[in-house]
Amino acid sequence: MVLGAWGMVPAGGMMDPEIMKNTFERIWKDWHWEETWGWDFPMTAMAATRLGMPGRAVDALFMDVETNTYLPNGHNYQDRRLRLYLPGNGGLLSAVALMCTGWEGGPEGDNPGFPDDGTWTVRWEGLKKAL
Hints:
By secondary structure, the chain is mainly alpha-helical.
C-alpha cells in the first residue's frame, strides 16, 4: 500500500518525490514478491510511472510471480483456492490507463509509463488523464 499512496492518489504538497523514489527502490529490492497479491504489481507500475521510471512500470506488470498471472479468461490468478482476484484485474486496467494517458499536472505527451526507446508501440483511445 505504500506504493499505492504515490501511484493512485493525486500528488499533493505533502509527499516528497525523492523520499518516495528511495522507498520505491527499497521495496523493489527487498520485498518478497512471491508473497504479494495481484494488485501489488499494478500499484508498483503506477508508482513507477508517476516517478518517471517507465522501465520499472513495465517490469512490474511482467514480473514472473504466480500472483501476477492472468489466465486465458482474463482472471488474475492467486493460487488454487483463489483463481479470480478482481482487485488484480482492476489494478491492471488502472495501471495501463495511467501508463498511457498520464495524469493532470504530469509530463506532457502520451505513454509516460512506457519506455521511449523504440521498443514499444502503444495505441489507445478514449481514455482520460488520471488526477
